[in-house]
Amino acid sequence: MRKAFISPTKYVQGEDELFNLGYFVKTFGNSALLIAHPEDVKRVRAKLDYTINKFNITLVESNFGGECSREEVRRLQGLAKDNACSCTIGLGGGKAIDTAKCVAEGEALIIVPTIAATDAPTSHSAVLYTPDGQFDDYAYFKQSPSVVMIDTTVIAAAPTRFLVSGMGDALSTYFEARATSNSYSNVNAGLPCGVREGACGPAKGTNTALALAKFCYETLLKDGPSAKVACDCNLVTPALENIIEANILLSGLGFESGGLAAAHAIHNGLTSLAGTHHYYHGEKVAFSTIAQLVLENADQDELQEVLDFCIAVGLPVCLADIGVDSVSAEELLEVARKACIPEESIHSMPFPVTAEAVAAAIRVADQLGRNYKQGRGA
Ligand SMILES: [Zn+2]
To answer: Is 267 designated active site?
Structure first.
């Protein structure tokens, strides 16, 4: 059986780690194109100035427009060429990171997440949008980032809601990897650059990735609640460090090399309900994870454990928690149909999935979450 695993070349996290950015730029040359939202640059300006002076490097600021579009990628690639940049830095949240991946095309790329809201930083893929913010296409590159660098002090200073959303994204990782493994479905790690199915054939997940995904879930249960409190206090503690690692590294390797299944597909379906638009990716993924567990008729104890965790860290457990106060049967079936289109990861579940079954699972997950909150007097 053909299996594949992909990861960044280096992952490094620590307090004030940004001071070392110049060191990593130096491994490629003397200058880097910096792709970052001006607000994010402002947050870390003092640290950037320090590392520029200490390592005698040049950071070419790019006036990033905020959208990962083909036009913006072309403009930034031109800027990198005109300034003879030796590497690309993507600093900030998802858009800056994805744009940097597209500009670098799998070469000499340093990713510096300033929030831990998703597990995208370590992956070799990005999502392209049109300049007005509509989905365009997925892009896959020949390599994952060269360096993923996390300054835990910066993450601790960011709003807690980002960290909690990251826990929601990380929550689905084990359950989706387990389903993918049980069904012997393909994983993204097998995809080469540019195309969705490799010339040398698709690949299944490794035992390694499944073990990382399981450890990701165990870390969330153990350290999630206290990491949330640490982030509320804007302080780095061992629990917060463990959760940053779970949200970004364990979940990132787990999803890309372990596979996605129902939870992310249900998330994608739910985005067609306007009420969900004000909620973050990981918040919707958390509720979608409960829906996956209902869909696969998971153990009652496991379902209970996931509900307990979500409530403990403040993740959504019902549709109202993600902005959907009421939804008709027809609307819900539409969400489920979207989750079940042929290219969706829901078909990595180890049994045939129908839109009707998915709609039923979402409805029952919603009711379970509401019952749970009522039982707790919440
Ligand atoms: Zn995700």
So the answer is: yes
Catalytic, 264? Answer: yes
Find the Cα–Cα–Cα–Cα dihedral 345, 205, 108, 151, rounded to 10°.
Answer: 80
Average pLDDT per block of 10 residues along the chain, 378 residues long: 95 98 98 96 97 98 94 97 98 96 97 97 94 87 96 98 98 98 93 55 93 98 98 98 98 97 96 93 98 98 98 98 97 97 96 98 98 83
> How many angstroms does the Cα of residue 361 sit away from the middle of ligand 1?
20
Known active-site residue 169: yes
Which residues neighbour 346 within 8 Å (Cβ) at sequence distance 6 or greater?
A: 261, 262, 265, 266, 339, 340, 353, 358
Let me know if 50 is exposed, middle or buried by CB neighbors in 10 A (0-12, 13-18, 19+): middle
Residue 24: Cβ within 10 Å count: 22
Q: Where does residue 195 rank: exposed (0-12), middle (13-18), buried (19+ CB within 10 A)? A: exposed
Return d(Cα 139, Cα 357) in angstroms, integer.
31
Distance CA 327, CA 339 (A): 16
CA 122 to chain centre: 9
pTM: 0.96
- Tokens standing for residue 134: 């509509």
281 among known catalytic residues: yes
- Give residue 357 CA to ligand 1 midpoint distance, Å: 22
